[in-house]
Design a protein that fits this description.
Blueprint lengths: L1 H6 L3 H17 L1 H8 L5 H12 L4 H12 L6 H16 L1 E8 L5 H15 L2 E8 L6 E6 L2 E6 H14 L1
Parallel strand pairs: 1-2
Antiparallel strand pairs: 1-3, 3-4
């Protein structure tokens, strides 16, 4: 679907509609239950999907119908995460999660994200969280890479060093 949408110049439209459908599956327990119900046959699920997506992009309709027919429609949220990853790579975007011990001002967060953007050479989209247990500093998660520059992390590393010697 990603490659077909890219070839037709419909990548953003398809990704947005797919994200909306995945959010509906996530947010509507009844829909999620129906799509993951092993007792319903794939044709019934495909019919439900077609009803739900209505006038969505043709590539998306075909993809979702195929996913339902092949028994993969229950994995729609995982497929959406993979599509997000592919879109981020296509756009040269880096999705990061910045966790700090206290709420940062917008200018402080912007300064940190600007450094990440300059170091990575990619546009950075960040989600911010606060975890007072960090004591100070921050933890940065980008995909499978994790940078722990928190006081708690430093104390933990020091503790491991002292125990191992």
């Amino acid at each position: 679907m990603f490659e077909a949408a890219k070839e037709k110049g419909q990548l953003n439209e398809v990704a947005e509609e797919f994200g909306d459908f995945a959010a509906a599956v996530r947010d509507v327990p009844e829909l999620r239950a129906v799509l993951r119900n092993p007792e319903l046959d794939s044709e019934t699920k495909a019919g439900i999907v077609v009803e739900v997506i209505g006038g969505a992009n043709e590539l998306l309709r075909n993809f979702l119908r195929l996913a339902a027919e092949k028994g993969r429609i229950g994995e729609i949220e995982e497929i959406n995460r993979e599509l997000d990853r592919l879109m981020a790579a296509e756009e040269g975007r880096l999705d990061v999660e910045l966790t700090t011990a206290f709420e940062l001002s917008d200018s402080e967060a912007s300064a940190i994200l600007k450094q990440i953007q300059e170091a990575s050479g990619r546009k950075v989209d960040a989600t911010r969280k606060v975890d007072p247990k960090l004591i100070g500093g921050f933890v940065l998660q980008a995909g499978s890479m994790r940078v722990d520059a928190s006081v708690r992390g430093r104390i933990e590393r020091l503790r491991r060093e002292l125990v191992s010697t």
